[in-house]
Amino acid sequence: MEFYMPTQIYHEAEAVRKHGEEMAHTGKKALIVTGHSSSKKNGALKDVTDSLDKYHTAYIIYDKITENPTIESVMDAAEIGRREGTDFVIGIGGGSPLDAAKAIALMIQNRDSASSVLYQNMALRALPVVTVPTTCGTGSEVTPFAILTRDDLQTKQSISHRIYPVIALVDGKYLKTAPESVLMNTAIDALGHMLESYFNSKATDYSRMLAQYALEVWGMATDILFGMEAQEGDYDRLMFASTLAGMAITHTGTSIPHGLSYYLTYHKGIPHGKAVGYFLPGYLDSMPESLEPQVIMALRAAGFGSLEQFEGFIKEMLGTIPVTDQEAKEMVEEIANNDRKKKAVPFEITKEQIDKIVQQAR
Amino acid sequence: MEFYMPTQIYHEAEAVRKHGEEMAHTGKKALIVTGHSSSKKNGALKDVTDSLDKYHTAYIIYDKITENPTIESVMDAAEIGRREGTDFVIGIGGGSPLDAAKAIALMIQNRDSASSVLYQNMALRALPVVTVPTTCGTGSEVTPFAILTRDDLQTKQSISHRIYPVIALVDGKYLKTAPESVLMNTAIDALGHMLESYFNSKATDYSRMLAQYALEVWGMATDILFGMEAQEGDYDRLMFASTLAGMAITHTGTSIPHGLSYYLTYHKGIPHGKAVGYFLPGYLDSMPESLEPQVIMALRAAGFGSLEQFEGFIKEMLGTIPVTDQEAKEMVEEIANNDRKKKAVPFEITKEQIDKIVQQAR
């Protein structure tokens, strides 16, 4: 088994300002990669630019990253970053800006390469990347993954290169202004990471430790998700669980629910975490009898009494997937032919079982 | 809170041979740092040199590291490493060779510096260090610490520089030939790391996760320690628990039992792990009532039903400390004046309490 997690993580109140000097000294000129509005609303962008100003590090801001970033936006930002002579990248936001930041850092460093190198198996370096997560689902602040939309394949896929952020600055305060739906969707994405990593053919004692602890931390913060008032520390718990889950999938990857989700996001525009969540009960239900005690243990850690209760929670929070019979068939076909995701399942999964997971979500 | 653990860890059967290429390509010429005999007996040295030969990486062997390595031996090895043009260091063995390897890597890199820089607060780099642990106590394969004997202060102390190994190659098979006493002493050292990290003012959710999981893994492997036949996986569990405990103390440091142990090792020649173990029951006993439930939980995770049972185990396995009243007084005095170790205690510890811990071990 393997453990590799080289990102320097600081998780605390005012993490950006407290470690602003280290962040600012990552390079001489930063390309800040973020979305259009949320990092302005939650204060993360100001925390970053104030710290860069304080330590006299130049920067430019690229705030045009949308949900499910495209290769075109990565190339656009990289072109600007090159032209402006930036030598490190700071990603601020949810999974989309953080993933985009890694791909952009790669394309700035490899200035004469075409976008096709993103998906080629070759050793390429990237500029250093600093991450400031403002949602609680992606784990991208610590993972080496960068998932982009591939119009050529009509799906989403991580680039071939593993780019670990050098510093992750994690602070629960950025969640306070997040819309309820974003909180819910991203928290469920993180839950998907925990469950898909725990029940994974590549799981080791290292990854299980991370996933298990993440489930327990997540389970202590679910009041917010049920519409109750946030308790002291809840936002930080959701952030912490998300980071731990990111560390877990770094070592195992994800599995069937993530694989199925890409279809819903690409073709139906359904937010990533929500698209993952639909399939989690069915995935757990597909486990062989020998794994059932572990399924119950994992769900209890996360605060659910039984698989039925968990399924009820998902149905109540997310509803059902809006697909026709034909579309459902296509989804099943796509994953039944995806050897990489199928190999992540800790047992031989059949096409019939994948079909059942999809039907259970309808 | 912070998490930083950049070492690439491979823990598996034949880890050295399986990752021999990555190890060999760490540099062009290796200085292998080890003790006189154990790494020959357990096969670790041959695993390393076979892999270096296979990938055509030159090496020289420095096998004169003794228990509780001195600054003189570090300088001696560094001189040879410099003269021979080595550009990376491979430490093989228990804590002594691994810690020495880090200090040697620092002194080879800083070729014109005197040994005094080891204990100076300044930013210095070191050659890359690869570690191959052959005991189950130190955690040095992943920690940034390098504890050397300081004759000037009549104690042991970690150097001022944090040197994280680049690769740790962990394989339970090296424990099979270890003498029972080495197994016991080092396993108890690891247990000390878990308990002193868990009950520590610097403990965070990250470090507690590591210490707690380590206690559970350790608790599953204690048959060997009670003289029973090793079960499949027991050696790897002891190794894994030791590595996890190393990751935990990397984030918290150790506390009173380690602080007290240095006196016994320096003045009485008592092996490190044993010297730590004597004080563990007393340290747990000194915890305030509010921490008692956690003390019980931690001991249960490690396989002990109560503090009394744990104290019985330690007394039976280690006996009592061979010190006079005067020496006991000196030990208490030394730690009562050691602010760094005292600050690691998760409550205000008094000199009377330290005295009680020492008396309890007699």
UniProtKB/TrEMBL annotation, chains A, B:
Domain Fe-containing alcohol dehydrogenase-like C-terminal positions: 185-289
Domain of life, source organism: Bacteria
Stored InterPro entries: ADH_Fe/GldA (IPR001670), ADH_Fe_C (IPR056798), Alcohol_dehydrogenase_Fe (IPR039697)
Pfam families given in the database record: ADH_Fe_C, Fe-ADH
Zinc keyword on record: no
Keyword Oxidoreductase: yes
Parts forming coiled coils: none
Domain Alcohol dehydrogenase iron-type/glycerol dehydrogenase GldA: 6-171
This protein's UniProt keywords: Oxidoreductase
Similarity comment: Belongs to the iron-containing alcohol dehydrogenase family.
Name of the molecule in the record: Iron-containing alcohol dehydrogenase
